[in-house]
Amino acid sequence: MDQQFWDDRYGTKDRLWSGAPNGVLVVEAADLPPGQALDLGCGEGADALWLAGRGWLVTAVDISQVALERAAAMAGDAKVSWTQADLTTFTPPAGSFDLVSALYFPLPRTADKALDRLLAAVAPGGTLLVGSHDLADVPPHGEFDPHDFYQPDEIAERLDDTWTVLVKETRPRVSAAPPGTEHVNDVVLKARKKV
Ligand SMILES: C[S@@+](CC[C@H](N)C(=O)[O-])C[C@H]1O[C@@H](n2cnc3c(N)ncnc32)[C@H](O)[C@@H]1O
Q: Is there a contact between 47 and 39 (Cβ–Cβ < 8 Å)?
């Protein structure tokens, strides 16, 4: 699942996702005071633009140049820092983001150190938000095995006593499932980095 894989996938359609922000983000971030946000695997940018519209300064990172160009084209005047990078090797500035959001972003288990770097990006008092499809709704297909990627529960296990876990649950999606999928439930982790 390298850049070529994702550019090819985005290239199959004019628009892959709905253009609406993820329900998990809308539910969990609506009450957060705006600050600096880091959107991991931002895709076509709907979440980043929703945050920017609420006053957040957003750095939105994706491996796919095709997705990022699409996001930038949608952005209008919104000031989002669209960043092309492979998050298995990228090092965001530590302790810098009031919100780090990873929604349906597939981080391979092999990227053990990357997970530590991404968690370290959350500022004191900041929020980590991870949302994933319930594995019960995602049977392995082709070469893709969802078990090869970090799940929110495992990320929660990585959090030490400098974190407070606020949400850790499996719950029904509030957004419609992406076309061609039968996703029913989200797995959500929300945690606050202690000051
Ligand atoms: C399922 S999409 C989700 C996109 C967006 N978060 C959303 O919910 O609409 C996963 C995204 O992660 C990106 N991605 C996958 N592996 C990546 C990596 N190693 N580094 C950066 N982005 C990656 C893909 O290009 C894709 O845009």
A: yes
CATH architecture type of domain 3-193: 3-Layer(aba) Sandwich (3.40)
Domain ranges of the chain: 3-193
Instruction: Tell me the CA–centroid distance for residue 186 and ligand 1, in Å.
Output: 16
CA of 1 to the centre of ligand 1 (A): 10
**Ligand 1 pocket mutation, candidates 18, 22, 105, 144, criterion most atoms within 8 A of CB:** 105
Strand partners, 170: 187
Q: What is the pTM of this model?
A: 0.96
**What's the CA gap between 96 and 121, in Å, rounded?**
6
Per-residue pLDDT of the chain (195 residues; tens, 9 = 90+): 899 999 999 999 999 998 899 999 999 999 999 999 999 999 999 999 999 999 999 999 999 999 999 999 999 888 899 999 999 999 999 999 999 999 999 999 999 899 999 999 999 999 999 999 998 888 777 777 888 999 999 999 999 999 999 999 999 998 888 777 888 999 999 999 999
The set of protein residues with a Cβ atom below 6 angstroms from ligand 1 is 1, 6, 17, 22, 41-43, 61-64, 67, 86-88, 103-106
Q: Whose CA is nearest to atom 12 of ligand 1?
A: 41
